[in-house]
Amino acid sequence: MSVMGCQWRPNVINMSCMLIAQITDTHVVPTDSEKGRLMMTETHLIAAVKHLLALRPKPNAVLISGDLVEDGSRQEYELLAELLAPLKAEIPIYLAPGNHDEREAMREVLRAHGYSYLPAEGHLQYVVDLGELRLLSLDTVVPGEPGGYLCEERLAWLDARLAEDPRPTIVMQHHPPFVTGLVRMDRMGLSNASDEAQVVRKHSHVIRILSGHLHRSICSGFAGTMAMTAPSCAHAVELDLQTEGRLAVLREPPAASVHLWKDGNLVSHTSFIGDYGPPYVIAE
User: Fold this and answer.
1) Which residues span the domain enclosing 169?
2) Across all residues in the chain, what is the average pLDDT?
3) What is the CATH number of the domain that holds 63?
4) Residues ≥6 apart with Cβ < 8 Å to 184
């Protein structure tokens, strides 16, 4: 086939790749509690785990970008570890804290369940070697506050870790570093995103900043790279871009983000969780 005198050729697909799945805002709370009956987050996480295990190819890693539990209790973290155990048995899981999380309870319970990369003290941030890629997980939590902040110590840590290795790097953090237009959620965003931007601009090998917090799939340019949020695998925040004081959740389909690293590029997809019937096969 030729178009305007040029011969068309199909793309040659290189199947060598790395797959990184991301879920977020699991807000785990026991189903037999009042919040649990309303939010059904235990049921949603069970479904998300089954969904991630069924992905093909199997993910090389799973990221969970904060608000792991609802109230920050040890009981909730024990339940979280139990629900994630089938996934953790097959795929490495990397966790970041969110504003609903409590650092010390998260640290104590989850380190005891084998999440040994979580630091024994201080902020819950760390570096992971993913082969061709690196993962830097940041702690944006301000205890007792819904919004996030990166103090000088955390910004210096980010700068130092980015400077020590030039490999393509993913930064994971709960609070996204950009304004979304969801006014009520933006008020509880990352309050000093401009400070983070100054650090990120120095390091062109940051290929993506992955966040949660907003319970929606949103992307934005940021400091010379791309920042994005994953949808919640439980409930969604309403897409309301005009009502200043409103905050509402709704039962949109839960979903995960799936990030494909191939040929030196990271491509991000949304994968909806649930049974929507078999695919209609157009070609084999």
Assistant:
1) 15-272
2) 93
3) 3.60.21.10
4) 244, 245, 246, 247
